[in-house]
Amino acid sequence: MKKRFQRWIIVLMIALLAGCSSVNSGISQQEEDFTKNSKVNLKERAVFYSEEALVKDEIPLNSYIRCTGKIMQKDREGTVLEKGDRFILKIGDTKIQVFNEQTEAFAVGDYVNVYGEYYGFLKGELIEGAEQ
For all residues of the chain together, what is the average pLDDT? Predict the structure, then answer.
């Protein structure tokens, strides 16, 4: 009787663990969908401002903008951007400071589109490669 009870406990534990693993895979799919939708929404909401608007500081704070330019330098050693790095984006003759808030790999010298929220600097929530 005791062995039978122990076997049932083991079977229930295995079933419980198997059920938890299938729930986790569903959550990761939800996270992926949310991330994809967030990127699409950010790209739709972001407004392109001219270089002149950047220079004259005519961009409303906390607005979502898109900038296209060349990564000139970053604040840490090395050339590859990491999440949390600050870098300078050169847009024509204008330079803007960007805080990298994403994990995609870009390097100093790359030409990129940066989407994010403007605070006098740009919080780069989405960065994509761009053509010159």
Answer: 86
